[in-house]
Design brief:
There is one protein chain. With 330 residues, the protein is of the alpha+beta class. It has three domains: 102 residues, Efflux pump adaptor protein, beta barrel domain (Elongation Factor Tu (Ef-tu), domain 3, Beta Barrel); 119 residues; 77 residues, conserved putative lor/sdh protein from methanococcus maripaludis s2 fold (Beta Barrel). It has three helices and 22 strands. The longest helix is centred in the N-terminal third of the chain and has 36 residues.
Length: 330
């Protein structure tokens, strides 16, 4: 039987990305449907590129003009160098031409940077998805004026597969968690509180243990990662978490419904070979789902009553009945 720790967890997206524009312009097209899955690199928005194409052409023209002037200045410097070496012109005239060439080189470097910036701005007019994820509500519309680095995002993407579940367990269990997690990553089962069905990946793996115990609650935060291929886990969803620490071998197990409370403690009705019942006090170590692990009071192979205990008294006769598709019940 697994030894587990129960907790309430919250589903969190591993990556959440707010999409914002890096340039200001008119939104020309929206290339996806809000609420659908998008792939990394998929086009999301198109901002009117014409102003940025014009700016790029202007920067390229300025670079071509200054390149021609720089080439002419270098030719003049070469001529002046020949004349200076022959002693036909003064040194200051040659130095002035040399400085002019250096200034043109700096101008060309600035022009190339302007061209690169204009190319980047033109690329920024096509906004693509940086991750695989699910798109949220659309906050802009075609025709809107989009401002660079605006406060509100255009849309938010959340990665759903894989996905994290965050939960807290008592800090006193930290030593056990560290010991068992060191052997192999601990497994976690997450079940939606709205449904008894397990998540599509019932066994996630513990991927994060916080570096401190919260002193206000005496708990420590953990995260488990689930593949979540069928999107059963959703960001913000509350789930019941079962963290499995280890497995208990040779556990004596009975259906939890067989264990009844009394003033003297918990008990079960044991069916003897003559089909009469005996009330037996038991010690329940713990309960795992709908199974109770018995610490004392029963032996392996004994038959216990699971239905109708309130109508029984010690020594009463019982029989096994079949309840439809549920199989035999005592």
């Amino acid at each position: 039987m697994p030894v587990t720790i129960g907790a309430v967890g919250t589903v969190e997206a591993i990556s959440t990305v707010d999409i914002r524009a890096l340039v200001t312009g008119q939104l020309q097209a929206i290339n996806f449907t809000p609420g659908e899955d998008v792939r990394k690199g998929q086009p999301l928005f198109t901002i009117d590129p014409r102003p940025f194409e014009a700016a790029l052409s202007q920067a390229q023209a300025a670079l071509a003009r200054d390149t021609a002037q720089a080439d002419d200045a270098k030719l003049q410097r070469d001529r002046f160098e020949t004349l200076f070496n022959r002693g036909l012109i003064p040194r200051d005239q040659y130095d002035t031409q040399t400085a002019s060439v250096t200034a043109f080189d700096a101008t060309l470097a600035s022009d190339r940077a302007q061209v690169e910036q204009a190319q980047l701005n033109l690329q920024y007019t096509n906004i693509t998805a940086p991750i695989n994820g699910r798109s949220g509500a659309l906050l802009v519309h075609a025709g809107d004026l989009i401002r660079a680095n605006d406060t509100d995002p255009m849309v938010t993407l959340k990665q759903l597969a894989p996905i994290d579940v965050t939960f807290a367990v008592p800090g006193r269990l930290l030593v056990d968690i560290q010991r068992f997690n060191g052997q192999s990553p601990l497994t976690v089962t997450a079940t939606s509180q709205a449904s008894t069905a397990p998540s599509v990946q019932p066994q996630g793996k513990v991927t994060f243990i916080d570096n401190a115990v919260d002193p206000t609650t005496a708990t420590i935060k953990l995260k488990a990662t689930f593949a979540n291929n069928d999107r059963r886990l959703w960001p913000g969803l509350f789930v019941q978490v079962a963290l499995q620490l280890s497995s208990q071998s040779n556990a004596l197990v009975v259906p939890a419904i067989a264990v009844q409370p009394s003033q003297q403690g918990q008990y079960v009705y044991v069916v003897k070979p003559d089909r009469t019942v005996e009330m037996r006090t038991v010690t329940v170590d713990r309960q795992q789902g709908d199974q109770a692990i018995i610490g004392a009071g029963l032996r392996s192979g004994e038959e216990v009553v699971t239905v109708g205990q309130l109508r029984l008294t010690p020594g009463a006769h019982v029989s096994v009945s079949t309840g439809g598709d549920e199989g035999p019940t005592s």
